[in-house]
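Notes, p. 3: input format for complexes.
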Amino acid sequence: MTFEKNILCIGAGYVGGPTMAMIAYKCPQYRVTVVDTNPERITAWNSDTLPIFEPGLDEIVKKVRGRNLFFSTQIERGIQEAGIIFVSVNTPIKTFGAGAGMAADLQYWEKTALQIREASQSDKIIVEKSTLPVKTALAMERILTATANGVHFDILSNPEFMAEGTGIRDLETPDRVLIGSRETSAGIKARDELLEIYANWVPRERIITSNIWSSELSKLVSNAFLAQRISSINAISSLCEKTEADVTEVARAVGMDSRLGDKFLNASIGFGGSCFKKDLLNLVYLCRQYGLEEVADYWEGVIRINDYQKERFILNMLDTMFNTLAGKKICLFGFAFKANTGDTRESPAIYVSRRLVEERSELVITDPRALINAQTDLADIKEKIDFIEDPYEAAAGCDAIAVMTEWDMYAELDFEKIYENMRKPAFIFDGRNILDHRNLFDTGFNVFPVGKPSLTHF
Ligand code: NAD
Ligand code: UDX
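Output follows (458 residues plus uridine-5'-diphosphate-xylopyranose):
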Protein backbone atom coordinates (compact mmCIF):
# COMPACT_ATOMS: atom_id res chain seq x y z
CA MET A 1 0.00 0.00 0.00
CA THR A 2 1.26 3.50 -0.73
CA PHE A 3 0.69 6.17 1.88
CA GLU A 4 -0.01 9.87 1.27
CA LYS A 5 2.55 10.98 3.84
CA ASN A 6 5.44 9.44 5.74
CA ILE A 7 5.49 10.84 9.25
CA LEU A 8 8.27 10.20 11.76
CA CYS A 9 8.34 10.94 15.46
CA ILE A 10 11.67 10.93 17.32
CA GLY A 11 11.04 10.05 20.99
CA ALA A 12 8.64 7.26 21.99
CA GLY A 13 7.67 8.60 25.41
CA TYR A 14 4.50 9.78 27.15
CA VAL A 15 3.94 12.32 24.37
CA GLY A 16 5.44 10.70 21.26
CA GLY A 17 3.65 7.34 21.68
CA PRO A 18 0.07 8.55 22.29
CA THR A 19 0.16 11.53 19.88
CA MET A 20 1.42 9.39 17.02
CA ALA A 21 -1.04 6.60 17.85
CA MET A 22 -3.83 9.20 17.52
CA ILE A 23 -2.55 10.50 14.17
CA ALA A 24 -2.27 6.93 12.84
CA TYR A 25 -5.75 6.09 14.13
CA LYS A 26 -7.42 9.16 12.63
CA CYS A 27 -5.43 9.14 9.38
CA PRO A 28 -5.14 5.64 7.86
CA GLN A 29 -3.80 7.29 4.69
CA TYR A 30 -0.53 8.24 6.46
CA ARG A 31 2.31 5.98 7.54
CA VAL A 32 3.51 6.91 11.05
CA THR A 33 6.78 5.63 12.53
CA VAL A 34 7.98 6.30 16.07
CA VAL A 35 11.68 5.84 16.82
CA ASP A 36 13.67 5.95 20.03
CA THR A 37 17.25 5.36 21.14
CA ASN A 38 15.94 3.18 23.98
CA PRO A 39 15.47 -0.34 22.56
CA GLU A 40 13.53 -1.57 25.63
CA ARG A 41 10.94 1.15 25.14
CA ILE A 42 10.51 0.20 21.50
CA THR A 43 10.22 -3.51 22.39
CA ALA A 44 7.53 -2.61 24.93
CA TRP A 45 5.61 -0.51 22.36
CA ASN A 46 5.65 -3.56 20.09
CA SER A 47 4.45 -5.89 22.87
CA ASP A 48 1.18 -6.49 24.75
CA THR A 49 2.47 -4.49 27.73
CA LEU A 50 2.95 -0.91 26.54
CA PRO A 51 5.64 1.12 28.34
CA ILE A 52 3.09 3.61 29.69
CA PHE A 53 -0.37 3.25 31.21
CA GLU A 54 -2.89 5.67 29.72
CA PRO A 55 -6.62 4.86 29.65
CA GLY A 56 -7.76 4.01 26.09
CA LEU A 57 -4.24 3.84 24.66
CA ASP A 58 -4.01 0.04 24.43
CA GLU A 59 -7.16 -0.17 22.32
CA ILE A 60 -5.96 2.43 19.81
CA VAL A 61 -2.45 0.98 19.53
CA LYS A 62 -3.88 -2.50 18.93
CA LYS A 63 -6.01 -1.17 16.07
CA VAL A 64 -3.24 0.64 14.21
CA ARG A 65 0.05 -1.05 15.08
CA GLY A 66 1.37 -2.88 12.02
CA ARG A 67 -1.29 -1.18 9.85
CA ASN A 68 0.05 2.37 9.64
CA LEU A 69 1.81 2.77 12.99
CA PHE A 70 5.28 1.34 13.51
CA PHE A 71 7.76 1.47 16.40
CA SER A 72 11.44 1.11 15.58
CA THR A 73 15.00 1.83 16.66
CA GLN A 74 16.13 2.57 13.08
CA ILE A 75 16.39 6.32 13.47
CA GLU A 76 18.52 7.05 10.41
CA ARG A 77 16.26 5.10 8.11
CA GLY A 78 13.19 6.74 9.64
CA ILE A 79 14.64 10.20 8.97
CA GLN A 80 15.47 9.36 5.37
CA GLU A 81 11.99 8.07 4.62
CA ALA A 82 9.98 10.83 6.31
CA GLY A 83 8.72 14.15 4.92
CA ILE A 84 7.55 15.40 8.31
CA ILE A 85 9.49 14.75 11.51
CA PHE A 86 8.01 15.41 14.95
CA VAL A 87 10.63 15.76 17.68
CA SER A 88 9.33 14.65 21.05
CA VAL A 89 12.47 13.92 23.01
CA ASN A 90 12.78 14.73 26.71
CA THR A 91 13.87 18.23 27.74
CA PRO A 92 14.56 17.89 31.48
CA ILE A 93 16.05 20.51 33.76
CA LYS A 94 19.84 20.79 33.57
CA THR A 95 21.60 19.14 36.48
CA PHE A 96 25.07 20.51 35.72
CA GLY A 97 26.92 23.65 34.64
CA ALA A 98 25.38 27.05 33.89
CA GLY A 99 21.67 27.15 34.68
CA ALA A 100 21.81 23.90 36.67
CA GLY A 101 18.47 23.30 38.42
CA MET A 102 16.73 25.92 36.25
CA ALA A 103 17.43 25.86 32.52
CA ALA A 104 16.23 23.24 30.04
CA ASP A 105 18.80 20.57 29.25
CA LEU A 106 18.81 20.64 25.46
CA GLN A 107 21.40 17.92 24.88
CA TYR A 108 18.84 15.39 23.62
CA TRP A 109 17.27 18.06 21.47
CA GLU A 110 20.58 19.07 19.90
CA LYS A 111 21.60 15.46 19.34
CA THR A 112 18.36 14.91 17.47
CA ALA A 113 18.95 17.99 15.31
CA LEU A 114 22.40 16.69 14.40
CA GLN A 115 21.00 13.23 13.61
CA ILE A 116 18.40 14.79 11.32
CA ARG A 117 21.02 16.88 9.58
CA GLU A 118 23.35 13.93 9.02
CA ALA A 119 20.73 11.50 7.73
CA SER A 120 18.56 13.81 5.57
CA GLN A 121 18.77 13.51 1.81
CA SER A 122 15.57 15.39 0.94
CA ASP A 123 13.66 18.49 2.18
CA LYS A 124 11.79 18.07 5.47
CA ILE A 125 9.42 19.76 7.86
CA ILE A 126 10.65 19.53 11.46
CA VAL A 127 7.99 19.89 14.15
CA GLU A 128 8.92 20.83 17.72
CA LYS A 129 6.59 18.74 19.88
CA SER A 130 8.77 18.86 22.99
CA THR A 131 8.30 21.83 25.32
CA LEU A 132 11.20 24.20 24.71
CA PRO A 133 12.48 27.60 25.76
CA VAL A 134 11.32 30.37 23.44
CA LYS A 135 13.80 30.86 20.56
CA THR A 136 14.86 27.20 20.43
CA ALA A 137 13.62 26.99 16.84
CA LEU A 138 16.28 29.52 15.93
CA ALA A 139 18.99 27.21 17.30
CA MET A 140 17.41 24.29 15.45
CA GLU A 141 17.43 26.26 12.18
CA ARG A 142 21.07 27.19 12.68
CA ILE A 143 22.11 23.59 13.32
CA LEU A 144 20.14 22.22 10.39
CA THR A 145 21.28 24.80 7.89
CA ALA A 146 24.94 24.54 8.87
CA THR A 147 25.69 22.19 5.97
CA ALA A 148 25.75 22.94 2.31
CA ASN A 149 24.16 19.73 1.06
CA GLY A 150 21.17 21.53 -0.47
CA VAL A 151 18.53 20.02 1.81
CA HIS A 152 15.91 22.54 3.00
CA PHE A 153 14.30 22.37 6.45
CA ASP A 154 11.24 24.22 7.72
CA ILE A 155 10.86 24.36 11.49
CA LEU A 156 7.42 24.49 13.09
CA SER A 157 6.39 24.70 16.72
CA ASN A 158 3.44 22.51 17.65
CA PRO A 159 3.42 22.16 21.45
CA GLU A 160 1.45 19.36 23.04
CA PHE A 161 -1.23 20.25 25.60
CA MET A 162 -2.40 16.75 26.58
CA ALA A 163 -2.47 15.84 30.27
CA GLU A 164 -1.64 12.35 31.48
CA GLY A 165 -4.54 10.20 32.58
CA THR A 166 -6.84 11.98 30.10
CA GLY A 167 -4.34 11.91 27.22
CA ILE A 168 -6.48 10.05 24.72
CA ARG A 169 -9.52 12.26 25.26
CA ASP A 170 -7.31 15.37 25.09
CA LEU A 171 -5.78 14.21 21.81
CA GLU A 172 -9.09 13.19 20.28
CA THR A 173 -10.96 16.39 21.22
CA PRO A 174 -8.31 19.02 22.00
CA ASP A 175 -9.32 22.47 23.25
CA ARG A 176 -6.93 23.77 20.61
CA VAL A 177 -4.03 22.73 18.41
CA LEU A 178 -1.37 25.41 18.08
CA ILE A 179 0.98 25.66 15.13
CA GLY A 180 3.69 28.31 15.05
CA SER A 181 5.69 29.00 11.93
CA ARG A 182 7.99 31.49 10.30
CA GLU A 183 5.94 34.04 8.41
CA THR A 184 7.71 33.36 5.09
CA SER A 185 6.03 31.64 2.16
CA ALA A 186 7.99 28.43 2.89
CA GLY A 187 7.04 28.66 6.58
CA ILE A 188 3.36 29.15 5.79
CA LYS A 189 3.40 26.27 3.28
CA ALA A 190 4.90 23.98 5.95
CA ARG A 191 2.36 25.19 8.51
CA ASP A 192 -0.50 24.39 6.13
CA GLU A 193 0.85 20.88 5.60
CA LEU A 194 0.81 20.21 9.34
CA LEU A 195 -2.60 21.84 9.64
CA GLU A 196 -3.92 19.42 7.00
CA ILE A 197 -2.91 16.47 9.23
CA TYR A 198 -4.86 17.74 12.27
CA ALA A 199 -7.82 18.82 10.10
CA ASN A 200 -8.52 15.09 9.60
CA TRP A 201 -10.26 15.10 12.99
CA VAL A 202 -9.90 18.47 14.74
CA PRO A 203 -12.49 21.16 13.81
CA ARG A 204 -10.79 23.91 11.82
CA GLU A 205 -11.68 26.65 14.33
CA ARG A 206 -9.77 24.78 17.02
CA ILE A 207 -6.54 24.79 15.02
CA ILE A 208 -4.84 28.10 15.62
CA THR A 209 -1.68 29.51 14.11
CA SER A 210 0.80 32.07 15.32
CA ASN A 211 4.35 33.18 14.85
CA ILE A 212 6.84 30.57 15.98
CA TRP A 213 8.03 32.41 19.10
CA SER A 214 4.49 32.98 20.38
CA SER A 215 3.83 29.29 19.94
CA GLU A 216 6.92 28.23 21.89
CA LEU A 217 6.14 30.71 24.65
CA SER A 218 2.42 29.83 24.81
CA LYS A 219 3.23 26.33 25.99
CA LEU A 220 5.37 27.54 28.89
CA VAL A 221 2.76 30.14 29.79
CA SER A 222 -0.14 27.64 29.69
CA ASN A 223 1.62 25.38 32.15
CA ALA A 224 2.67 28.33 34.30
CA PHE A 225 -0.96 29.57 34.52
CA LEU A 226 -2.29 26.09 35.36
CA ALA A 227 0.34 25.60 38.06
CA GLN A 228 -0.33 29.10 39.37
CA ARG A 229 -4.02 28.27 39.88
CA ILE A 230 -3.08 25.24 41.98
CA SER A 231 -0.62 27.25 44.05
CA SER A 232 -3.26 29.96 44.48
CA ILE A 233 -5.84 27.58 45.88
CA ASN A 234 -3.22 25.74 47.93
CA ALA A 235 -2.07 29.03 49.45
CA ILE A 236 -5.68 29.73 50.40
CA SER A 237 -6.03 26.21 51.84
CA SER A 238 -3.48 27.10 54.53
CA LEU A 239 -5.51 30.18 55.45
CA CYS A 240 -8.70 28.07 55.56
CA GLU A 241 -7.07 25.72 58.06
CA LYS A 242 -6.42 28.69 60.36
CA THR A 243 -9.87 30.25 60.03
CA GLU A 244 -12.34 27.33 59.88
CA ALA A 245 -13.24 28.23 56.30
CA ASP A 246 -13.59 25.25 53.94
CA VAL A 247 -11.44 25.45 50.80
CA THR A 248 -13.93 23.43 48.73
CA GLU A 249 -16.67 25.90 49.54
CA VAL A 250 -14.38 28.82 48.78
CA ALA A 251 -13.30 27.23 45.47
CA ARG A 252 -16.92 26.64 44.50
CA ALA A 253 -17.89 30.24 45.21
CA VAL A 254 -14.86 31.63 43.39
CA GLY A 255 -15.11 29.20 40.46
CA MET A 256 -18.73 30.10 39.70
CA ASP A 257 -17.53 33.46 38.46
CA SER A 258 -17.52 32.76 34.74
CA ARG A 259 -14.47 35.01 34.36
CA LEU A 260 -12.50 32.58 36.51
CA GLY A 261 -14.09 29.18 35.81
CA ASP A 262 -14.28 26.18 38.12
CA LYS A 263 -11.49 23.93 36.85
CA PHE A 264 -8.10 23.37 38.46
CA LEU A 265 -9.18 24.61 41.85
CA ASN A 266 -8.74 21.38 43.82
CA ALA A 267 -6.55 22.05 46.82
CA SER A 268 -4.04 19.25 47.23
CA ILE A 269 -0.78 18.08 48.61
CA GLY A 270 0.81 20.05 45.73
CA PHE A 271 1.22 19.58 42.03
CA GLY A 272 3.57 17.00 40.54
CA GLY A 273 4.26 15.64 37.09
CA SER A 274 7.12 16.03 34.67
CA CYS A 275 5.94 19.36 33.26
CA PHE A 276 4.80 22.04 35.71
CA LYS A 277 7.92 22.52 37.79
CA LYS A 278 10.25 22.09 34.84
CA ASP A 279 8.37 24.56 32.67
CA LEU A 280 8.05 27.11 35.48
CA LEU A 281 11.78 26.88 36.17
CA ASN A 282 12.37 27.35 32.50
CA LEU A 283 10.20 30.45 32.42
CA VAL A 284 11.94 31.84 35.47
CA TYR A 285 15.35 31.20 33.90
CA LEU A 286 14.33 32.89 30.65
CA CYS A 287 13.05 35.94 32.52
CA ARG A 288 16.31 36.22 34.45
CA GLN A 289 18.31 35.86 31.25
CA TYR A 290 16.43 38.84 29.83
CA GLY A 291 16.97 40.81 33.06
CA LEU A 292 13.32 40.61 34.16
CA GLU A 293 14.04 39.88 37.82
CA GLU A 294 10.61 40.92 39.18
CA VAL A 295 8.82 38.76 36.64
CA ALA A 296 11.10 35.84 37.44
CA ASP A 297 10.46 36.25 41.19
CA TYR A 298 6.71 36.34 40.59
CA TRP A 299 6.66 32.96 38.80
CA GLU A 300 9.19 31.45 41.19
CA GLY A 301 6.61 32.10 43.91
CA VAL A 302 4.37 29.45 42.34
CA ILE A 303 7.05 26.82 42.94
CA ARG A 304 7.76 28.12 46.44
CA ILE A 305 4.11 27.71 47.44
CA ASN A 306 4.09 24.20 45.99
CA ASP A 307 7.14 23.24 48.06
CA TYR A 308 5.58 24.88 51.12
CA GLN A 309 2.38 22.89 50.63
CA LYS A 310 4.26 19.57 50.67
CA GLU A 311 6.29 20.49 53.74
CA ARG A 312 3.18 21.87 55.47
CA PHE A 313 1.54 18.48 55.01
CA ILE A 314 4.43 16.76 56.82
CA LEU A 315 4.54 19.35 59.60
CA ASN A 316 0.80 18.94 60.07
CA MET A 317 1.24 15.18 60.45
CA LEU A 318 4.04 15.71 62.91
CA ASP A 319 2.06 18.23 64.93
CA THR A 320 -1.14 16.18 65.13
CA MET A 321 0.60 12.88 65.86
CA PHE A 322 2.05 14.24 69.10
CA ASN A 323 5.24 15.76 67.63
CA THR A 324 6.95 12.54 66.75
CA LEU A 325 6.62 10.23 63.80
CA ALA A 326 9.51 8.00 64.84
CA GLY A 327 8.41 4.36 64.90
CA LYS A 328 4.92 5.26 63.69
CA LYS A 329 3.69 3.17 60.81
CA ILE A 330 2.29 5.31 58.00
CA CYS A 331 0.63 4.12 54.82
CA LEU A 332 0.62 6.25 51.67
CA PHE A 333 -2.49 5.73 49.57
CA GLY A 334 -1.21 6.39 46.07
CA PHE A 335 2.19 7.25 44.67
CA ALA A 336 1.42 8.41 41.09
CA PHE A 337 1.50 12.19 40.61
CA LYS A 338 -2.20 12.08 39.71
CA ALA A 339 -4.88 9.43 39.17
CA ASN A 340 -5.10 7.23 36.07
CA THR A 341 -1.41 7.12 35.35
CA GLY A 342 1.53 5.06 36.54
CA ASP A 343 3.81 8.08 36.10
CA THR A 344 5.53 9.25 39.27
CA ARG A 345 7.80 11.99 37.91
CA GLU A 346 7.95 14.85 40.46
CA SER A 347 5.13 13.20 42.40
CA PRO A 348 4.59 14.90 45.78
CA ALA A 349 4.58 11.37 47.22
CA ILE A 350 8.34 11.17 46.58
CA TYR A 351 8.97 14.17 48.83
CA VAL A 352 6.53 12.97 51.49
CA SER A 353 8.12 9.48 51.52
CA ARG A 354 11.62 10.86 51.94
CA ARG A 355 10.56 13.20 54.71
CA LEU A 356 8.69 10.47 56.57
CA VAL A 357 11.71 8.16 56.39
CA GLU A 358 13.84 11.08 57.62
CA GLU A 359 11.42 11.38 60.58
CA ARG A 360 12.05 7.63 61.15
CA SER A 361 8.51 6.51 60.37
CA GLU A 362 7.89 3.02 59.09
CA LEU A 363 6.52 3.52 55.61
CA VAL A 364 4.11 1.40 53.54
CA ILE A 365 3.20 2.47 50.01
CA THR A 366 0.25 1.24 47.99
CA ASP A 367 -0.81 2.24 44.45
CA PRO A 368 -2.70 0.37 41.74
CA ARG A 369 -0.32 1.37 38.91
CA ALA A 370 2.79 3.08 40.20
CA LEU A 371 4.56 0.66 42.55
CA ILE A 372 7.33 -0.24 40.09
CA ASN A 373 8.15 3.41 39.47
CA ALA A 374 7.90 4.08 43.23
CA GLN A 375 10.57 1.46 43.90
CA THR A 376 12.84 3.08 41.32
CA ASP A 377 12.26 6.60 42.69
CA LEU A 378 13.05 5.45 46.23
CA ALA A 379 15.74 2.91 45.31
CA ASP A 380 18.24 4.33 47.86
CA ILE A 381 15.81 3.92 50.81
CA LYS A 382 13.84 0.98 49.41
CA GLU A 383 14.76 -1.42 52.21
CA LYS A 384 13.08 0.88 54.73
CA ILE A 385 9.74 0.76 52.89
CA ASP A 386 7.08 -1.89 52.20
CA PHE A 387 5.38 -1.77 48.80
CA ILE A 388 2.00 -3.53 48.92
CA GLU A 389 -0.59 -3.44 46.13
CA ASP A 390 -3.67 -4.31 48.21
CA PRO A 391 -4.74 -1.20 50.20
CA TYR A 392 -6.37 -3.25 53.00
CA GLU A 393 -3.20 -5.23 53.55
CA ALA A 394 -1.08 -2.08 53.24
CA ALA A 395 -3.02 -0.18 55.91
CA ALA A 396 -3.18 -3.06 58.40
CA GLY A 397 -1.25 -2.31 61.59
CA CYS A 398 -0.63 1.34 60.60
CA ASP A 399 -1.12 4.44 62.77
CA ALA A 400 -2.02 6.69 59.87
CA ILE A 401 -3.07 6.78 56.22
CA ALA A 402 -2.02 9.67 53.99
CA VAL A 403 -3.81 10.01 50.65
CA MET A 404 -1.36 11.11 47.97
CA THR A 405 -3.24 10.30 44.74
CA GLU A 406 -6.92 10.81 43.92
CA TRP A 407 -7.60 7.26 42.64
CA ASP A 408 -11.40 6.70 42.53
CA MET A 409 -10.95 3.31 44.18
CA TYR A 410 -9.82 4.91 47.46
CA ALA A 411 -13.19 6.62 47.98
CA GLU A 412 -14.91 3.24 47.57
CA LEU A 413 -12.91 1.26 50.15
CA ASP A 414 -14.52 -0.25 53.26
CA PHE A 415 -13.00 2.08 55.86
CA GLU A 416 -14.68 0.30 58.77
CA LYS A 417 -12.69 -2.79 57.88
CA ILE A 418 -9.53 -0.70 57.46
CA TYR A 419 -10.09 1.03 60.83
CA GLU A 420 -10.50 -2.28 62.67
CA ASN A 421 -7.06 -3.42 61.53
CA MET A 422 -5.19 -0.19 62.33
CA ARG A 423 -3.43 0.89 65.53
CA LYS A 424 -5.38 3.37 67.67
CA PRO A 425 -5.72 6.29 67.67
CA ALA A 426 -6.02 6.04 63.88
CA PHE A 427 -5.37 9.07 61.67
CA ILE A 428 -6.24 9.93 58.08
CA PHE A 429 -4.54 12.80 56.26
CA ASP A 430 -6.46 13.32 53.04
CA GLY A 431 -4.03 15.13 50.75
CA ARG A 432 -6.60 15.11 47.95
CA ASN A 433 -9.89 15.71 49.78
CA ILE A 434 -11.49 12.69 48.08
CA LEU A 435 -12.78 10.76 51.11
CA ASP A 436 -16.04 11.12 53.05
CA HIS A 437 -14.58 12.89 56.08
CA ARG A 438 -17.72 12.87 58.27
CA ASN A 439 -18.15 9.14 57.71
CA LEU A 440 -14.51 8.46 58.55
CA PHE A 441 -14.83 10.49 61.74
CA ASP A 442 -17.96 8.54 62.73
CA THR A 443 -16.02 5.32 62.12
CA GLY A 444 -13.45 6.45 64.69
CA PHE A 445 -10.70 8.09 62.62
CA ASN A 446 -9.13 11.44 63.38
CA VAL A 447 -9.43 13.18 60.04
CA PHE A 448 -7.19 15.90 58.59
CA PRO A 449 -8.22 17.16 55.14
CA VAL A 450 -6.47 19.93 53.18
CA GLY A 451 -7.95 23.37 53.78
CA LYS A 452 -10.89 22.22 55.91
CA PRO A 453 -11.47 21.94 59.63
CA SER A 454 -10.07 18.72 61.06
CA LEU A 455 -12.39 16.19 62.75
CA THR A 456 -10.82 14.74 65.87
CA HIS A 457 -11.84 12.66 68.86
CA PHE A 458 -9.47 14.39 71.28
P1 NAD B 1 9.77 10.86 27.90
O1 NAD B 1 11.00 10.90 28.70
O2 NAD B 1 8.64 9.98 28.30
O3 NAD B 1 10.13 10.46 26.37
C1 NAD B 1 11.19 11.01 25.64
C2 NAD B 1 11.82 9.89 24.82
O4 NAD B 1 12.79 10.45 23.93
C3 NAD B 1 12.56 8.82 25.64
O5 NAD B 1 12.00 7.55 25.39
C4 NAD B 1 14.02 8.93 25.17
O6 NAD B 1 14.68 7.67 25.12
C5 NAD B 1 13.84 9.50 23.78
N1 NAD B 1 15.04 10.17 23.24
C6 NAD B 1 15.86 11.05 23.87
N2 NAD B 1 16.83 11.44 23.01
C7 NAD B 1 16.62 10.80 21.84
C8 NAD B 1 17.28 10.80 20.57
N3 NAD B 1 18.35 11.57 20.33
N4 NAD B 1 16.79 10.00 19.58
C9 NAD B 1 15.69 9.24 19.80
N5 NAD B 1 15.03 9.20 20.97
C10 NAD B 1 15.48 9.98 21.97
O7 NAD B 1 9.27 12.37 27.78
P2 NAD B 1 7.77 12.89 27.53
O8 NAD B 1 7.02 12.92 28.81
O9 NAD B 1 7.20 12.17 26.35
O10 NAD B 1 8.07 14.39 27.13
C11 NAD B 1 8.63 14.74 25.88
C12 NAD B 1 8.51 16.24 25.69
O11 NAD B 1 7.12 16.61 25.64
C13 NAD B 1 9.11 17.08 26.82
O12 NAD B 1 9.67 18.24 26.25
C14 NAD B 1 7.91 17.45 27.67
O13 NAD B 1 8.11 18.66 28.35
C15 NAD B 1 6.83 17.60 26.64
N6 NAD B 1 5.45 17.36 27.12
C16 NAD B 1 5.17 16.32 27.97
C17 NAD B 1 3.86 16.06 28.37
C18 NAD B 1 3.52 14.90 29.29
O14 NAD B 1 2.35 14.78 29.67
N7 NAD B 1 4.43 14.03 29.66
C19 NAD B 1 2.83 16.88 27.91
C20 NAD B 1 3.15 17.93 27.04
C21 NAD B 1 4.46 18.16 26.65
C1 UDX C 1 0.00 19.21 32.55
C2 UDX C 1 -0.96 20.12 31.74
O1 UDX C 1 -2.27 20.03 32.31
C3 UDX C 1 -0.98 19.71 30.28
O2 UDX C 1 -1.80 20.62 29.53
C4 UDX C 1 0.44 19.71 29.74
O3 UDX C 1 0.45 19.30 28.38
C5 UDX C 1 1.34 18.80 30.57
O4 UDX C 1 1.29 19.22 31.95
P1 UDX C 1 -0.17 16.78 33.60
O5 UDX C 1 1.01 17.21 34.38
O6 UDX C 1 -0.13 15.49 32.87
O7 UDX C 1 -0.55 17.90 32.51
O8 UDX C 1 -1.45 16.71 34.59
P2 UDX C 1 -2.39 17.82 35.26
O9 UDX C 1 -3.77 17.32 35.19
O10 UDX C 1 -2.14 19.17 34.75
O11 UDX C 1 -1.96 17.74 36.80
C6 UDX C 1 -0.70 18.21 37.25
C7 UDX C 1 -0.61 18.14 38.74
O12 UDX C 1 -1.49 19.08 39.36
C8 UDX C 1 -1.02 16.77 39.33
O13 UDX C 1 -0.16 16.44 40.39
C9 UDX C 1 -2.43 17.02 39.82
O14 UDX C 1 -2.82 16.14 40.83
C10 UDX C 1 -2.31 18.44 40.33
N1 UDX C 1 -3.60 19.16 40.41
C11 UDX C 1 -4.34 19.37 39.28
C12 UDX C 1 -4.03 19.68 41.63
O15 UDX C 1 -3.36 19.51 42.65
N2 UDX C 1 -5.21 20.37 41.69
C13 UDX C 1 -5.98 20.60 40.58
O16 UDX C 1 -7.04 21.24 40.70
C14 UDX C 1 -5.52 20.08 39.34
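The chain has a mean pLDDT of 96.
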